[in-house]
Recover the amino acids of this structure.
């Protein structure tokens, strides 16, 4: 079955840039979606289709996807960005949605 | 305003059954595929099951196939998850999430409910 690999944690200082990766076999051929989940809350879509930003999501959030790695980039990180982030793809060989293991973003 | 409201969670013994419900409002319910996603305590998100807008196509994670059944009633804007032969490892918060289109796999989850807790324990 298709697997997505994320680093368990990423730490950045306020104002810096955070990059969260999502690895998968030829993930560049798939559409990747990213969700933010703050403690005790439901996930929120922050990036769709590799790099599209839904309405209401700050321009500081961006995404890219190529070959075997997709990346969520958060520029000028703020304390409010501290959360867990998950990548997601559809695996059409199994007709399953697949989530990455999640990355905890800590703002120092 | 789009809203998804889950209900039906609770404490159940191993081997027991539970039926979760998700009520949708604020959107054209039959035009959206619906999914259940769970999150065990302190763990990540795990997709459980999905259902196309018309209800004809269903999808299940390997861990629940044969035990769980997803269905929907578009006349009531409801989606259900029937969970049988429950195990301790099914303990989790179960979220209902809608896709932005009718066919599962082509879209993303634009709205999620707040979740309902299922605890499987003796």
């Amino acid at each position: 079955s298709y697997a997505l690999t994320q680093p368990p944690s990423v730490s950045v200082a306020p104002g810096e840039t955070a990059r969260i990766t999502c690895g998968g076999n030829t993930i560049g051929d798939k559409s990747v979606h990213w969700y933010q989940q703050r403690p005790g809350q439901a996930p929120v879509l922050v990036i769709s289709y590799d790099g599209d930003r839904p309405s209401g999501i700050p321009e500081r959030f961006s995404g890219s996807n190529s070959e075997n790695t997709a990346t969520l980039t958060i520029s000028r990180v703020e304390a409010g960005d501290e959360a867990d982030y998950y990548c997601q793809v559809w695996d059409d060989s199994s007709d399953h949605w697949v989530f990455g293991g999640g990355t905890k973003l800590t703002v120092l | 305003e789009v809203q998804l409201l889950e209900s039906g969670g609770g404490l159940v013994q191993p081997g027991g059954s539970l039926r979760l419900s998700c009520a949708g409002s604020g959107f054209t319910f039959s035009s959206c595929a619906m999914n259940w996603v769970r999150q065990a305590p302190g763990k990540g998100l795990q997709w459980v099951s999905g259902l196309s807008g018309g209800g004809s196509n269903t999808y299940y994670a390997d861990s629940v196939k044969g035990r769980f059944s997803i269905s929907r009633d578009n006349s009531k804007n409801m989606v259900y998850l029937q969970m049988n032969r429950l195990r301790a490892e099914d303990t989790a918060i179960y979220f209902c999430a809608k896709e932005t289109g009718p066919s599962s796999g082509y879209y993303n989850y634009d709205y999620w409910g707040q979740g309902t807790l299922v605890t499987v324990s003796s």
In short: The CA atoms of residues 12 and 107 of chain A lie 5 Å apart. The radius of gyration of chain A is 13 Å. Chain A has no helices and nine strands. Chain A touches chain B at residues 1, 33, 35, 37, 41-45, 48-49, 54, 84, 86, 88, 90, 92, 95-102 (CB under 8 Å).
